[in-house]
Write a structure and sequence with these properties.
The chain has one domain. 48% of the residues lie in helices and 16% in strands. It binds S-adenosylmethionine (SAM). InterPro entries: SAM-dependent_MTases_sf.
């Protein structure tokens, strides 16, 4: 039996009742095509331990595996892209840590199963680094981080450039939400991104070097 409540105190303080797997899948099936599009961006503003984000990542990775498992570099590139398109916020620190760990575990399980002793720690570091940035300990109501000093939450748009390069641009969560684009984060057509100037841009970098070069 999956547990949807950790404690009565957490339910009272944070409304924490986690969504069951059957409901998660039924809801995601309403946007099935998007959950199976590797680069489709999802934000869960009260992500808990990641019940929705975990299934989204599993669905995307199933597509990556089906299409790219013959080439390790292609698999790594698209798996990193799948991870980089998933965003979450939660007000409870342990949930955020759990969620990052869980998403990493989902990636690593597939990666190890496919490539065993040939797996590359730089790829793992890239996945961990992106999850550290994309899954935020913050308050989705005032759009600020929870760790001190409390600063506005930023989200990073990760876009592939010339195959193996990744470009990162940071945006303020509050801008994205105020423009009512929370369901359409950084639309692929570029129209959302065009409306919002990034607050920071980084030079493109090889995806396997991302954890070492960008701080
Ligand atoms: C009903 S649970 C849902 C968790 C997850 N989305 C799921 O479906 O399993 C609500 C979550 O929202 C978080 N939460 C409550 N207030 C929040 C806020 N202001 N900002 C971000 N997260 C918040 C809680 O910590 C809890 O994990």
């Amino acid at each position: 039996m999956e547990s949807q409540v950790i404690s009565k105190k957490r339910v009272a303080n944070h409304g924490e009742v986690l969504t069951g797997n059957r409901e998660v899948n039924a809801m995601l099936d309403l946007v099935k095509q998007e959950t199976e599009r590797i680069e489709s961006r999802f934000l869960e503003p009260a992500c808990g331990t990641g019940n929705f984000l975990a299934v989204i990542l599993e669905r995307k990775l199933a597509v990556v595996e089906k299409r790219y498992s013959k080439s390790q570099l292609d698999f790594e590139r698209y798996a990193v892209l799948a991870v980089s398109s998933i965003y979450g916020v939660d007000i409870q620190k342990d949930n955020v840590e759990h969620c990052r760990q869980r998403l990493f575990g989902i990636f690593d399980l597939v990666y190890l199963r496919l490539f065993k002793h040939k797996t590359n720690d730089d790829c793992r570091a890239a996945v961990r680094f992106i999850l550290e940035i994309n899954i935020v300990w913050g308050d989705a109501l005032d759009f600020k981080t929870k760790d001190e000093p409390r600063v506005p939450i930023r989200f990073s748009e990760w876009s592939p450039v010339n195959g193996s390069m990744l470009k990162r641009r940071d945006f303020m969560l509050s801008y994205l939400v105020e423009k009512q684009h929370q369901m359409l984060l950084f639309s692929d057509e570029g129209n959302v991104a065009d409306l919002n100037e990034p607050i920071r841009e980084y030079p493109p970098i090889h995806f396997l070097e991302i954890a070492h070069a960008q701080q």
